[in-house]
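For the sake of transparency, this paper describes our internal protein records without simplification. Such a record has a labelled line for the sequence and another for the backbone structure tokens. Nothing more is needed to write down the fold, since each code stands for a local backbone conformation. For reference, a complete record is included directly beneath this paragraph.
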Amino acid sequence: MKKALLYSRLEDDLVSCHLCSHRCQIADGKRGICGVRENHGGELYTLVYDRIISCNVDPIEKKPFYHFLPGTLSLSIATVGCNFRCRNCQNYQISQMPGDEQGRINGQKLSPDEIVNTATRYRCTNISYTYTEPTIFFELALDTARLALDTARLAHSKGLRNNFVTNGYMTAEALQLINPYLDAANVDLKGFDDQRYRQVCGARLQPVLDTIRLMHELGIWVEVTTLLIPGHNDSESELEELARFILSVSPDIPWHISAFYPTYKMTDRPRTSVESIHRAGEIGRRIGLRYVYSGNIPGDENEDTYCYNCHKKLIDRWGFQVQENVMQEGKCPSCHTAIPGLWSL
């Protein structure tokens, strides 16, 4: 165990956790909603600081990031646990392990130093804190991200970048703390209806919207992903509201629209059709978003990146692979328009 950050002590050995927007009040000997932060005698501890349940080298496009170091490799890590209870979770075996398996916490011991060394060894350009919710293993992510930056400074290299693939439910305090080390985030915006957020995820919508705005204001590169679930969050009115929100933050935020398939506790819904993905994309573009992408449809033209100004194809993709990238120093080679994103270290 390692003492947690971002909490305060209350009376009778209670603690108040300030890491995510649940702001759990946790009694002595109990854990928060995430299942991995435990109160011992009025002190809060993380149970997953060096317990990595998943560590893989992935294409950055798998996260998905399309405007953040395209065509590069990312060391992707996770611990067990999550502060959401999504009925359709695709990684429920690890994200819901503490809740579904009587508090069980599995994982291989891996320190921040070992994580950074592994990323360097496999020639990754960045570390992705992903698969489960990175907020719940915040202390590990923060120490690793700091070390990645410090290692680069000592070696006089461009170093490793850091990104979160997140549900966006962290507090402003947590985001401000990791901001100096966090380069990018893909935020899962699961819909635009607070009641359904509560029913399906066990969380509220507004804190997610607040996180997206604050990330953008802080200069963190933001991309947004929405899993399109038939009969749940795919109405035209809801998609228009969601797209308008992204537009209100910035028309340059890429919006990834991904296909749902039945899993975990949501097996009563059909798979998302290609036509539904395309319809949602058309809504986003009509609202004014400049970069709207189809997910889970390898070979679809809407997974390519085009210049918003002259419509030249800039990045040709097939699934998670970049086939061709003709951008020059982050600009369109035809009209020299700057394309928002982080294109090189």
User: Anything to note?
Assistant: The mean pLDDT is 95. The first helix runs from residue 92 to 95. The domain at 51-250+279-286 is CATH 3.20.20.70 (TIM Barrel).
